[in-house]
Design brief:
By secondary structure, the chain is mainly α. It is built from eleven helices and no strands.
Length: about 230
Amino acid sequence: MTPAHAAVAEGWPVLLTSVVVGITYGVVARQSGLSVAEASGSSLLVFAGAAQFAAVGLLREGAGTLEVAASVLLINLRHLLMAASLRPHFARASFVERLGLGYILTDEAFAMGIGHFRRGHRDLVYYATFGTLLWLCWNIGTLAGAIFGAGLEHPERYGIDFAITATFLAIVAVGVRHRTDLVVAVAAGIVAGALRLVGATTLAVVVAGAVAPIVVLLARDEPSDTAESPFRTR
């Protein structure tokens, strides 16, 4: 099985769920006052589900531009940690290739990609394929939700508000291969869940995202494998 085929075979549950989450975002964005073009444009340019949901939530509550921008920046700071972890595997890619690979970096792409590398693979085809398909699924879902979901009342009745949770559950199910992975997932889940129970929303995501890397450092069980020829399959 080629890396591209493996990315689809292993990642299809996450890809399908991302369509549902994208639809949810499109619905919420429209009900928050965004036009179809604005909702779809945010997915094309930002491509960060948690930050996009936080942004439309703040806009709906009347938050100012600086508050929205600061919140999105804070939530997305975790991408610096993910990028640093992937950097050794991207070392032989050109500058332009790294820009493209960075653009499709999401929680899902990181989880699938780092799992691929930790199994001893050196190519970037797996990561690039999954990340590109995820981008496509997310944007298709966003557009569909923005076009057809503006008049949908109480979308939570259909359970689509659980879609983003289902996405991350799928990531954990596909990506957990070592004891360390499970420890990190459980620790982040407990922290986020506890904070959510006391009323936190965006803060729960940020704090849980900060706790997980600390747990990784404390419970790391294997070193990273530096890429030698990134786009060559093996």
